[in-house]
Amino acid sequence: MKVGIMIEGQEGLTWERWFRLAQTAEDMGYESLCRSDHLTGLGGMSKRPSLETWTSLTALALRTKRIRFGPMVSPLTFYHPAILAKMAAAVDNLSGGRLDLGLGAGWNEHEHKMFGVSFFTLKERLDRLEAGAQLIRSLEKGQPLRRRAATAWSSGGAARSARSRSSPSSPTSGT
To answer: What is the pLDDT of residues 134-149, one digit of tens each?
Structure first.
């Protein structure tokens, strides 16, 4: 059995804590270290220390040698899938292929409203998740995007490959 750790990165996470946790996870033989991707504490506590998800994952790529890591999950309400694919591929390459990309539909309405991020209906969020996951998969495989990705996003062929070192079977998804 493989065992990993998942933390709520917005709930008081500092650089010192993040690096200590990563080192401990490596030293104790854990398989992975994942963190949530939120803009504020789950109770709306914006004064707690919190590290931005993708900056903290980039630092982990450089500070660790063995463990797999990633967001659990990055909501596609916060990111355009092409931009997320490019960020994920860059961090994956930097880490030598150890990033696990988790995708989600977004669920915390209060958080979205607090930061002025559009919060769609559940059906719309799930449709966007499906379309975004397909778009990310196409970019990861180096396939050009000339068609509309369902009804959520489109690309006139401007997006280019977001290939990473690793080739996971599928991104992790959730809400």
So the answer is: 889 988 888 766 555 5
